Amino acid sequence: MLARAARGTGALLLRGLNILIPVLDRIRYVQSLKEIVINVPEQSAVTLDNVTLQIDGVLYLRIMDPYKASYGVEDPEYAVTQLAQTTMRSELGKLSLDKVFRERESLNANIVDAINQAADCWGIRCLRYEIKDIHVPPRVKESMQMQVEAERRKRATVLESEGTRESAINVAEGKKQAQILASEAEKAEQINQAAGEASAVLAKAKAKAEAIRILAAALTQHNGDAAASLTVAEQYVNAFSKLAKDSNTILLPSNPGDVTSMVAQAMGVYGALTKAPGSGAQDSVSRGSGRDVQGTDASLDVELDRVKLS
Description:
Blueprint: E1 2-6, E2 12-13, E3 27-32, E4 35-46, E5 52-63, H1 66-71, H2 76-92, H3 97-102, H4 104-119, E6 124-135, H5 138-219, H6 224-241, H7 259-275, H8 279-309
Antiparallel strand pairs: 1-2, 1-3, 4-5, 5-6
């Protein structure tokens, strides 16, 4: 839609049929109500950290009031362009170089707000502003590239150190777990070994107790003393045959070859021990066994002769 402003009366001619008075009225301004695109020329701007940038942009605006756009300002597009450039320099001076690249959207929004506040009396509304290119001086660009490379090397070093730390932690944790498992295994082994030894000792004790019980029962039977004498004699002969084999120090009785006296001495000790707990019962056993011993003296003498010969 086109809006025409008539000279002289200052009337606004809209679309449709309009009557103009010759000589007095003529079309002076023609304003388009469509959205207008204006290229903002490249300009220099100094950032907060004193870096000079070359920056340009694109401005999108629309005439909202043709009368104000015609009579409020001489050249609305030029005025808006100059306002955009000054506002851009002002906004860039508030930001450092790093923030200029990170906050382009907020920078565009601030420029649009500043233009709308100033261009309201011109009947113009800025719809949006976009920064096209930002040119950095070559030395600053080199410094930025070096900074980026240093940052990347720093990240690589940090990642490598973190990887080394994680590796060391994992190795230490593995050794810790291995030691814990080894100690638990050793503990279980010791417990099992102790349980086995205890079972073995208990089994030996039970076997020895059973052997003693059977031996005691055998001694109370017929010819028990004779059998005990024979066993003592055999053990004496076996011990006598092992003399001077394990050590040079030997303790011998006064007459080591007299097996009969040794057996009699051992049986005397056994008789003294058996009489101590209860003499009455043992006397009856002794009387009964005395009769049996007389009957077996001959067989005992023969067995002792056999043991001596062996």
